[in-house]
Amino acid sequence: MKIERIEKDNLNSSVSITLSKEDYEPTFLDELKKYRNKASMKGFRKGKTPMNFIKKMYGQSVLAEVVMDKINKSLSEYIAEEKLDILGQPLPGEEQERYEFDPNALKDMTFVFDLGVAPEFEIQGLEDPVNLYDVEIPDETVREELDIARKRLGKQVDIEDNIEENDLLTIKAVELEDGSIKEGGWETDFTVLVNLINDEDVKSALLKGKKGSEFDFDINTIEKDKDEAYVRKYLLNLDDDEEKEIGNMFRGTVDKVQRVEAAELNADFFKGYFGNEDVDNEEDAKGKIKEEIVKYYKQQAKLVMNRELMEYLMENNKIDTPDNFLMRWLATNNEKLSKEEIEKDFDSFKKNLQWTLIKNKLSAKYEIQVDPEEIRNEMRNKVLSYMQGYPMDENTLNDMTNRLLSNQEQVNRVYEEVQAAKIFDKLEDDLNFNEVKITLEDFKEVVKELNESQNN
């Protein structure tokens, strides 16, 4: 066997592997014997089928499998031994000779593979100061959070007077035809939160109404972002297999108005919301809530710093990549995508690749390791976050975690998240910080702009 590497430039190279007939013939013949021993053909005892029959039936496919197995194994070993840092996977050379794999005419074969080479670079910009926001929390935000806490532990009461934005309404509705109640029309009832009503005219009318008020509405659009299946099941109360045709216009009557009445600031509330914390009055409650808000926005400020640092590093580290090779690789691995679609999304792919290269460089610098237990713990935390507020025993939690771990795409994503978090933790020891005081409103605007830039 002969292996040769041809460097085309800093980002592209080829590997040529030549197999002589002697390199693969013994293995090929051994495989044919295995087929012969297992073959059961009419007119011959098992294992006694003439070899020319076996070669005629299976020779071409067995030969191709043997040769390509040796080629792929040799290529992988060569890349590992030479410590080649490549992007994507090797691709067959564009001018690769096509072989017929004739089992009756064994010959030397040469296979050429194109490689996309990862670029050499040194990370620039780590010595520059990084903004770390110190978010100022206004008293009004603390008051709003206290009100939310009181509502959370409040009780639901029936209301007879004016409807408010956060009320829950029970609506009895009857189908209309040409603006009048349809004879034999469909009747239904459902509940809806006022703040989820999509039709602003309907919402405005209801906010001026009370229990017993009537209004006309389109049942398909009364709630935000609800599809036909949801409307038929939860608003029209139809069975899944029921195909009844029903109009979209209805007249509704507010049958019940329910409102969460905020809990009073008393010992029961303080104990129920703060548990064993030393809180027994409104000022202490505000202080404890503010502590949690400050802790939350410190974490958010750290995430923003990481995002801004990522953007800054990408801006200051323009990395050359083997674009033609990468587009071929994407086309090979995404056969359903057209050339135009790949070209359209290539800039986004290249940006992600750029960050991956920077991240891998930092990971090597700080000797970052991510072990399976860390991935499992992060998956477990995600399950707990998804199911927040729902009781869950240990077996159920483990089952859901294991299901996530069985999805390789999910595992890869979590690996990337854990790796990035570790990198940023290490970077904090090396970075120079500019502490920047910022109002909560301005901080939210910074977050909004970052999200918009990431989506573009």
Describe, in short, the structure shown.
By secondary structure, the protein is of the alpha+beta class.
Keywords:
extended; 6-stranded antiparallel β-sheet; 19% strand; 456 residues; 12 strands; single chain; 4-stranded antiparallel β-sheet; Chitinase A, domain 3
Structure write-up:
- Helix 1 packs across helix 2 (51-81).
- Helices cover 50% and strands 19% of the residues.
- Among the domains are: 2-117, Trigger factor ribosome-binding domain (Alpha-Beta Plaits), CATH 3.30.70.1050; 155-261, Transcription elongation factor, GreA/GreB, C-terminal domain (Chitinase A, domain 3, Roll), CATH 3.10.50.30.
- A hairpin with a 2-residue loop joins strand 7 and strand 8 (180-181).
- The relative contact order is 0.11.
- The chain starts with a strand and ends with a helix.
- The chain is extended.
- With 456 residues, the chain is an alpha+beta fold.
- The longest helix is centred in the middle third of the chain and has 35 residues, at 282-316.
Q: Could you report the average pLDDT, rounded to the nearest whole number?
A: 91
Molecular shape: extended
Let me know the number of strands.
Answer: 12
Q: Secondary-structure element order, as H and E? A: EEHHEEEHEEEEHEHEHHHHHHHEH
The name of the CATH topology of the domain at 2-117 is Alpha-Beta Plaits
Q: How much strand?
A: 15-25%
Class of the domain at 2-117 in CATH? Alpha Beta
The biggest beta sheet, please? 6 strands, antiparallel
Tell me the distance between the termini: 50 Å
The CATH superfamily of the domain at 2-117 turns out to be Trigger factor ribosome-binding domain
Computed over alpha carbons, the radius of gyration is 34 Å
Q: Count of DSSP helices?
A: 13
Class per helix and strand makeup:
alpha+beta
Helical amount = 40-55%
* CATH architectural arrangement of the domain at 2-117: 2-Layer Sandwich
The residue ranges in which pLDDT falls below 50 over 5 or more consecutive positions are: none
